[in-house]
Amino acid sequence: MEPERRALYVRIPLPAAEKLDRAAFEMQVPKQDLVAGLLFEHLPGAGSRRVVVESMDDTMTVGQHSFVPADAPDVLTPAEAAELLRIDEETVVAMADRGELPARKLGDEWRLTRSAVLRWLEEA
Fold first, then answer.
1. Which of 13, 36, 55, 59 is at 20 to 30 A from 87, Cα to Cα?
2. Percent of the chain scored above 70 by pLDDT?
3. Confidence band (pLDDT; 50, 70, 90) for 102?
4. Both 54 and 79 in a single domain?
5. Domain membership of residue 26 as a residue range
């Protein structure tokens, strides 16, 4: 079964993008799998989890990096609220339409606050 994926768009310098393209081609691995493998898991045949970063002065640095998750947003989209509640986004929208879930419509889009959703969940 294919693992669930979430889109992540980043802007990287052109030389780095070219190196990523070349590495993915040489390893015959999709770029997204290559990046995910470098960050979170071992790639087949990749050996250790070291990541080599080239600096501007053309020296090489070998090391580790830890990732700290970003703070959760206070204002949620229906998709984010669905993830928080572990239900389908369509269910969140339907409940908001019926007034069952604390939400506010901004234009054509629903928005929810994390605190109101959690408070509603505790009281439900």
1. 36
2. 73
3. very high
4. no
5. 14-63
The DSSP secondary-structure symbol of 67 reads: -
pLDDT, residue 16, reads 82
pTM of the predicted structure, to 2 decimals: 0.47
Q: What is the C-alpha to C-alpha distance for residues 106 and 64, in angstroms, rounded to an integer?
A: 43
Q: Do 81 and 47 have their domain in common? A: no
Task: Give a yes or no: residue 4 inside a domain.
Answer: no
CA 43 to chain centre: 20
Q: What is the SS3 assignment for 113?
A: strand
> Given a cut of 70, is residue 42 above it in pLDDT?
no
Instruction: Give 108's DSSP letter.
Output: T
The DSSP H or E segment spanning 81 is helix 78-85
